Amino acid sequence: MVLAAGRGERLRPLTDATPKPLLAVRGKPLIVWHLEALARAGVRDVVINVSWRGAQLRSALGDGSQYGLRIHYSDESALALEVGGGIFNALPLLGAEPFLVVNGDTFTDVDFARLRIGPRPLAHLVLVDNPEHHPEGDFALRDGLVEASGAPRLTYAGIGVFRPELFAGCAPGRFPLLPLLQAAIAQRRLSGERHAGAWTDVGTVARLAALNELPHDDGHG
Questions:
Q1: What contacts 16, CB < 8 A, 6 or more positions away?
Q2: N- or C-end of the chain: fewer Cβ atoms within 10 A?
């Protein structure tokens, strides 16, 4: 699942007319980098949640065949459901097995094909070193388990493998993901790994501009 329903307030005015995932990074829409990487990883079915300017996303990406994918859309209409509510709303499209979730506003060279979840964890998160705009981080990582406290602190990359069981007991509507992750931590059922490669949260006009100015090769990231 690629999360693409957000309004992109911090990227205004760019996102007033264009949904954030369609903003260009190094010559192609941000979300296309993800779709191409997912296809290379062997993924064939992708769910994209849409809200703000969702019709533009549907028009630009179509059924996914141009990327070797089958795209299914989870429509949140005018009220974006946040990350937790958005994933929960898409569960009927995602099925009963573990699924990969990627934030549509990140740019990274994470190898999606390598990500695995063990039999016990409810979710497996990719963590990165804290960026300048988020120096306190989100979690700690010890012996492969994500913890609420401890050092060093790391930042959730917006990429993870999730079991539908993480959302057991949730009700339809708008809600964040963090409380579900905290509950999994309390049960010692949240695993993770640190990614040391390229990763950018394309959340502001300045970070988008900086990303487009960096030298790069033809690879993802």
A1: none
A2: C
| pLDDT in the model for residue 132 | 85
How many distinct structural domains can be found in the chain? Answer: 1
CATH number for position 208 = 3.90.550.10
Q: Where residue 113 falls among pLDDT bands split at 50, 70, 90?
A: very high
Q: Per the domain annotation, does 221 fall within a domain?
A: no
Return the beta strands (E) in the chain as ranges.
2-3, 24-25, 28-29, 45-50, 70-75, 99-103, 106-108, 123-128, 139-142, 145-147, 153-162, 190-194, 199-201
Place of tokens 């960096």: 214
CA distances from 50 to 7, 56, 100, 102, 161 (A): 10, 10, 17, 14, 20
Does any domain span residue 218?
no
C-alpha closest to that of 56 among 80, 34, 89, 23: 23
The stretches of 41-192 forming alpha helices (DSSP H) are 54-61, 82-94, 178-186
Q: Is residue 182 part of a domain?
A: yes
Q: Is residue 92 part of a domain?
A: yes
> What percent of the chain clears pLDDT 70, i.e. is strictly above it?
86
141-154 per-position pLDDT tens digit:
999 999 999 989 99
Q: Per-residue confidence at 217, pLDDT binned at 50, 70, 90?
A: very low
Contacts (Cβ under 8 Å, ≥6 apart) of 211:
25, 26, 107, 200, 202
